[in-house]
From TrEMBL:
Residues 1-172 form the N-acetyltransferase domain. SUPFAM superfamilies: Acyl-CoA N-acyltransferases (Nat) (SSF55729). CDD domains: NAT_SF (cd04301). The lineage of its organism: Bacteria, Bacillati, Cyanobacteriota, Cyanophyceae, Nostocales. The keyword Lipoprotein does not apply. InterPro entries: Acyl_CoA_acyltransferase, GNAT_dom, NAT_camello-type. Keywords: Plasmid, Transferase. The keyword Lipid biosynthesis does not apply. It holds the Pfam family Acetyltransf_1. One of its GO terms (molecular function) is N-acetyltransferase activity. This is GCN5-related N-acetyltransferase. Gene3D superfamilies: 3.40.630.30. It comes from the Bacteria.
């Protein structure tokens, strides 16, 4: 398996994976298939470099057949007072590749990247409380819960809660 930054040459496979993720796992994302299926390829390409900063991107996991099988986004705040904070978003692994360490490998690669960024002290993320495998993975890497948002998502008549998690690189924060 290869894990690397996605680039503009990957925009078609990224769009396909993102739309499949929104269909297959609607509770894992704040966006919806209905919203994003209308986006153009340039809209998707713009996500591959958030804030036009090369430190920010979407990492992709490619399987043995060079198929994109997983993704995880990372971005760093660009405002001076919040430059020490990064965020993880859009974690997804194809169902047929789950349980094989793809999500853990993606998370470890992104955390390794983040630890190399000067001045970055913490990374936050949100995860729906019913996504137990993801919650377990994040906690295994040291993420701690700092809040819970009740009724954060409303999907097909049902509300879902989200946990807010943070990983501190320096525990003297």
């Amino acid at each position: 398996m290869e894990i690397r930054f996605l680039n503009t040459q990957d925009v078609v496979v990224y769009r396909e994976l993102r739309l499949q993720a929104l269909k297959d796992s609607p509770t894992a994302f704040g966006s919806s298939y209905e919203e994003e299926s209308c986006f153009s390829l340039p809209d998707f390409a713009a996500r591959l470099r958030p804030h036009n900063d090369p430190a920010n991107s979407i990492f992709g996991a490619f399987g043995n057949t060079d198929k994109l099988i997983g993704m995880l986004g990372f971005s760093r705040e660009n405002r001076l007072k919040r430059f020490h904070i990064g965020s993880l978003w859009s974690m997804y692994v194809l169902p047929e590749n789950r349980g094989q360490g793809v999500g853990a490998a993606l998370l470890d690669r992104v955390l390794s990247h983040a630890r190399c960024l000067s001045g970055l002290r913490q990374i936050s993320l949100t995860v729906t409380t019913n996504n137990l495998p993801a919650c377990s993975l994040y906690q295994s890497r040291g993420f701690e819960r700092f809040g819970k948002e009740h009724n954060a998502l409303f999907i097909n008549g049902t509300y879902f809660d989200e946990e807010h998690l943070v990983l501190y690189f320096n525990h003297d924060v």
